Amino acid sequence: MEMQLFPWIRDDIAVEIIGKMIAEQTEQLYDLLREFDWAGFERDDPEVLSHPKYQEIMKNIRQFKSEIDDIYTGIRLEALYKKIETVYVPYLNYKSGDLIVK
């Protein structure tokens, strides 16, 4: 019975880590939008929507959401788990200064 639960736990941890990546990107997005706000731009102004940093952040968020969808549909799981382990966890550990997953 315990062996059947393990994949679900692994998926939940993966979703949580990707969620932290989304939160980090969202923080960057809010910082950028505040800068535009201070300069007198609205969030849906063409200057904001076409800004390279805005587009990069939105692309990253879409990619992370797609990866969460992949977890729930079972697509490319092993490659995604490897990416989480080798890219996302070290990045989050570096950004926070704390060990998220060892």
Indicate the mean pLDDT. 89
Rg, nearest Å: 17 Å
Total helices: the number is 4
| Element-by-element helix/strand order | HHHH
What is the share of helical residues? over 70%
Concise account of the structure shown:
It contains four helices and no strands.
Your description of this structure?
The chain is an all-alpha fold and 102 residues long. The chain is 81% helix and 0% strand. The chain contains 4 helices and no strands. Helix 1 runs antiparallel to helix 3. The chain is elongated and about 50 Å long. The two termini are 26 Å apart. The relative contact order is 0.14.
List keywords for this structure.
102 residues; mainly alpha; 4 helices; elongated
What's the layout of helices and strands?
Layout: H1 2-38, H2 46-49, H3 52-73, H4 77-96
Helix pairs in contact: 1-3, 1-4
